Amino acid sequence: MNQKTVVLIVGAGAVENAWLPIYKSFQNVFESSIDDADSANFQFTRLVYLLRFYSAAKFAETTKDALENAKRKITELKHEIVKQLNLAQQSQELKVRSHFETLLMNFIFKEEIKFAVISTNWDTVVNEAINKFAKKIEHGKTINTFHLHGSIEKPNSLYLPSEITCENYRSVEEDNEHGVNQAILLSILKKANQIILYGISLDPLDAELNQTIFASLKNEDLQEIVVINPECKKVSSRVKLLLQETNRNIKISCYNPLKYDIH
């Protein structure tokens, strides 16, 4: 039997209360009152901008101290984020959506499917949920989840919104590590027959991920992209924008898990 290769890419939308630990982290480090994802991203991108500005070659000498101070503050924020994410996982404030097992059963755990799981989240909620489910139906099999943007297991690895692989304020080693992650993602996507975007918005702040998905569309074996998101129409329209620059006729399926059964 020919197996279908499915790549599941999971984002913050797959996890209940995913942003609450981030809000708490900004409150604790910057005393910022934040209660929505857009505001958090607004702050993240401003911090990344400062790192880029202070590390620009023509300012390097005069902004050296400011750059080091900005780096220290972001390191403090990353460690606070990891602390808050761990606390939220332990208390089960963070958990997968109620329909997650249905998604796994209908799209992933089938005899004719081999699959890979990619997470853009820093927490490991999805990892744990997938392995808990796998133990029930696959006799204890362990499923590895690849964290594209770093994880709580390594605080300094956290990839902030709007960051890209090559940044002036990082070491060569850090840039190489992030570059390898993008290369791994592309190599996985190039083998896919179906890509599932679950809780992924293809946000304009994540141009690098969007471009990597675009590069994968040249894969002639790719037959379908499935969008599972309450804003599936908006995300699907972004997928269509990527497809416009190709000659591929790839099916796009759209599911709103809040209104329809995932099937």
Verbal overview:
With about 260 residues, this protein is an alpha/beta fold. The chain folds into two domains: about 5-15 and about 95-255, Rossmann fold; about 20-90, no CATH class. It is about 45% helix and about 15% strand. The chain is built from eight helices and eight strands. The protein has helices at about 20-30, 35-55, 65-90, 100-110, 125-135, 170-190, 205-215, 230-245; strands at about 5-10, 15, 95, 115-120, 145, 195-200, 225-230, 250-255. The radius of gyration is 19 Å and the shape is globular. The mean pLDDT is about 95.
Give the helices and strands, then pairings.
Layout: E1 4-10, E2 15-16, H1 20-30, H2 37-55, H3 64-90, E3 95-96, H4 100-108, E4 113-119, H5 125-137, E5 145-147, H6 172-189, E6 194-198, H7 207-216, E7 224-228, H8 232-244, E8 251-255
Parallel strand pairs: 1-4, 1-6, 4-5, 6-7, 7-8
Antiparallel strand pairs: 2-3
Helix pairs in contact: 1-3, 2-3, 6-7
